[in-house]
Task: inverse folding
């Protein structure tokens, strides 16, 4: 270990102040990140519980465990919780909140009180949505398609919509804070071309949050008004157009898919560079690819509507534009691979998750190309092929990146190392469990098994059993980190300021960082990922 | 004057938040944040404008008939009221910048009066529509008064009125919030919070106020004027 043993505990953001009030009224971005971490973890387990119920129901062909109505509510609540209350805030609000101000050498986010407000809005939205679920649930699917959601569903659509509406403002404020922070709070010398790629990708995600989220907010407001007052905007009986809802919904919700993956891509760039001891290959291209994904993301929404009754010419154009997204995505994957080429690679847990991310995201991305082409989309529309595709991107990509980032920055957040052997085991379990769960669903979908049914023909049982078995392995893979992270808080080895010998301003301050992040404002005179000039040391921790 | 300058700078130093290097960075950041927020507001209203565009193209005649029911006199008066309020708001920001807090408070109070004036006139209009059953829902009733277009479906005019209520209602909600914000500026101004070295909140609330004004500048022609001529 390069760091001297500290005998007196330094003041840091965790021990500077005690008591519940010092947490609930904090404006420190690091404490707000911890608040998010706790609440998002709770939502993850709740969403995971609904997923397990779905998988248990699908263990047998007959719809025997839950009724079809209950099943509809289960997959709806799984979707709403995982999308709006876990995936969208996960990387930006937890890891981004903690790391971005450190990376840019700032004392805090640009608007610390707005940052706290966004956590309260998140909680208010989550509690509203959960209340709707506890008092009867929602059965529309997370997409709230009209006119079912506005006219025919007898469940708590308004409550869930209002919950997402409120949480949306949390997302808007987080995005706004990121954009302003990255523009205005950078340390002297930290030019855009020296900015870590994690900041670039959070910036790109923030563009989507700021431009897209207001549209879903107004759309869900209209759904609620339609249900309450029958205003007719989406009701075909009054001349309203249900397809207009789909346009408005996907105008946000497709970019939102990239919003879930972009910050994760930033995590992977940091980790691949660190554990290959090399500067990210084609730094500028990787940085601009994030912006390109955010921009293209706004031009492809109608590929969700190929069979909804849009004109065939519109469908052709949207299909073509959807292919375009593959270019910046592939730029990233190739450049990560090129970064590893001839690098001095070490196989620590964050890197294992990064390997998993690159492989699984590639599978998810390539099947996205299948789905963007009209012919195949018409064939596999609304089947398990689609389910498998977006779980490869969102779980195989998004959640893997979140886990990677959590392991990578856990020593910074807590000052403690997690147990490396257990962590490697859990990364392996997650990878194996994930593929066992979702790969069979590609085959199921290709054979024609439709999504959103609680019963299926007996010949599909083998693949479904495989999928459910995989989900159990995946669950173990997620429970383990939960246990050892908490364990490490008390028993983990002291991490020191820079356990990975990584570059980046966040590693130049102590772990956990002091409340004001840096004793004096850093001045940056070097490129990002300057591993060539970083003292070459073995990463000793965990071996 | 020198002592008052020093006092101003002290007020400004108290207003400097710990995470900024200097007042200039804080001012630029606050202003940039406000512009970003207004961008999200444009997207927020954008969904409704998009719906308006789609349905106006689909049900043009229904929109013509619906807009016959608009009271142009009241609408035009309200437009004038809002433009005047924007002027007093802008002058108020200028007064804060010039270090004239009393003048600023007076101008902001006039802005509030204009704001309430707008809401009052809007309430009269809403009342008219309400008693004429021009509110979407089960009680909605619309006589197609245009023999030239007997085929116009009253249900389609209901969509027009849905958009009318949703768009002007959301705008009115923004007005209410704006009045609250200006009132907060008045109270803080009376307590001497703003000096030429620190007046970001005044400037930012001013931006918000102008934005809300601008939304109305689009709503008024879209809902009241542009379909009117062809209706007769």
Result:
């Amino acid at each position: 270990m390069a760091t001297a043993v500290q005998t007196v505990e330094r003041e840091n953001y965790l021990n500077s102040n005690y008591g519940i009030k010092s947490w609930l009224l904090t404006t420190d971005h690091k404490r707000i990140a911890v608040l998010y971490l706790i609440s998002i973890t709770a939502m993850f387990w709740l969403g995971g519980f609904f997923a397990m119920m779905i998988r248990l129901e699908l263990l047998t062909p007959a719809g025997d465990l839950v009724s079809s109505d209950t099943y509809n509510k289960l997959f709806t609540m799984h979707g709403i919780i995982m999308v709006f209350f876990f995936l969208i805030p996960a990387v930006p609000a937890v890891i981004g909140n903690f790391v971005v101000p450190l990376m840019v050498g700032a004392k805090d986010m640009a608007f610390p009180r707005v940052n706290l407000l966004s956590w309260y809005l998140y909680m208010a939205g989550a509690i509203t949505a959960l209340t709707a679920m506890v008092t009867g649930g929602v059965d529309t699917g997370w997409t709230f398609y009209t006119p079912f959601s506005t006219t025919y569903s007898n469940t708590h659509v308004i409550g869930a919509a209002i919950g997402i509406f409120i949480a949306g403002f949390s997302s808007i404020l987080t995005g706004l804070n990121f954009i302003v922070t990255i523009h205005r709070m950078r340390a002297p010398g930290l030019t855009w071309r020296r900015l870590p790629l994690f900041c670039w990708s959070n910036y790109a995600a923030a563009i989507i949050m700021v431009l897209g989220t207001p549209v879903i907010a107004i759309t869900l407001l209209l759904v609620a008004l339609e249900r309450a007052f029958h205003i007719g905007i989406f009701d075909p009986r009054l001349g309203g157009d249900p397809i207009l809802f789909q346009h408005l919904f996907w105008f946000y919700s497709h970019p939102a898919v990239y919003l879930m993956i972009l910050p994760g891509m930033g995590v992977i760039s940091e980790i691949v560079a660190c554990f290959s001891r090399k500067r990210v290959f084609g730094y500028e291209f990787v940085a601009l690819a994030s912006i390109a994904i955010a921009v293209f993301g706004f031009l492809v929404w109608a590929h969700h509507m190929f069979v909804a009754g849009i004109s065939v010419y519109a469908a052709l154009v949207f299909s073509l534009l959807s292919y375009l997204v593959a270019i910046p995505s592939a730029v990233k994957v190739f450049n990560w691979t090129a970064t590893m080429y001839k690098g001095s690679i070490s196989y620590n847990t964050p890197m294992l998750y990064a390997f998993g991310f690159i492989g699984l995201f590639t599978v998810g991305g390539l099947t996205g190309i299948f789905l963007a082409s009209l012919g195949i989309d018409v064939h596999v529309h609304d089947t398990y092929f689609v389910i498998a595709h977006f779980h490869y991107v969102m779980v195989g990509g998004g959640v893997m990146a979140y886990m990677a980032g959590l392991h990578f920055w856990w020593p910074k957040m807590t000052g403690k190392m997690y147990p490396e052997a257990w962590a490697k085991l859990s990364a392996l379990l997650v990878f194996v469990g994930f593929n066992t769960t979702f790969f069979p669903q590609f085959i199921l979908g290709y054979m024609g098994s439709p999504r959103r049914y609680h019963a299926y023909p007996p010949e599909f049982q083998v693949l479904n059993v495989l999928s459910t078995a995989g989900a159990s392995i995946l669950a173990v893979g997620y429970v383990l980190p939960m246990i050892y992270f908490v364990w490490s808080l008390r028993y983990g080895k002291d991490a020191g300021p820079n356990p990975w010998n990584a570059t980046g301003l966040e590693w130049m301050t102590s772990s956990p960082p002091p409340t004001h992040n840096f004793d004096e404002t850093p001045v940056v005179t070097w490129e990002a990922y300057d591993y060539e000039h970083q003292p070459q040391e073995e990463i000793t921790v965990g071996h | 004057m020198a002592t008052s300058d020093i006092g101003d700078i002290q007020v400004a130093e108290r207003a400097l938040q710990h995470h900024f290097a200097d007042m200039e960075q804080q001012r630029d950041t606050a202003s940039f944040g406000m512009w970003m927020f207004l961008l999200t507001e444009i997207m927020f209203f954008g969904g409704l404008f998009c719906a308006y565009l789609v349905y106006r193209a689909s049900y043009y005649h229904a929109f013509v008939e619906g807009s016959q029911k608009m009271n142009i006199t009241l609408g035009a008066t309200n437009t004038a009221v809002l433009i005047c309020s924007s002027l007093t708001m802008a002058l108020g920001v200028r007064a804060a910048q010039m270090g004239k807090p009393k003048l600023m408070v007076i101008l902001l109070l006039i802005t509030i009066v204009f704001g309430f004036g707008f809401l009052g006139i809007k309430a009269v209009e809403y009342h008219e529509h309400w008693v004429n059953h021009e509110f979407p829902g089960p009680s909605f009733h619309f006589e197609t008064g245009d023999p030239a277009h007997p085929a116009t479906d009253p249900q389609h005019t209901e969509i027009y009125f849905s958009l009318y209520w949703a768009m002007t209602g959301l705008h009115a909600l923004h007005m209410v919030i704006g009045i609250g914000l200006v009132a907060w500026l008045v109270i803080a101004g009376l307590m001497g919070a703003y000096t030429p070295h620190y007046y970001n909140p005044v400037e930012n609330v001013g931006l918000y106020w102008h934005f809300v004004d601008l939304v109305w500048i689009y709503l008024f022609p879209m809902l009241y004027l542009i379909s009117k001529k062809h209706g007769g």
User: Anything to note?
Assistant: The two ends of chain A are 12 Å apart (CA to CA). Chain A has a mean pLDDT of 93.
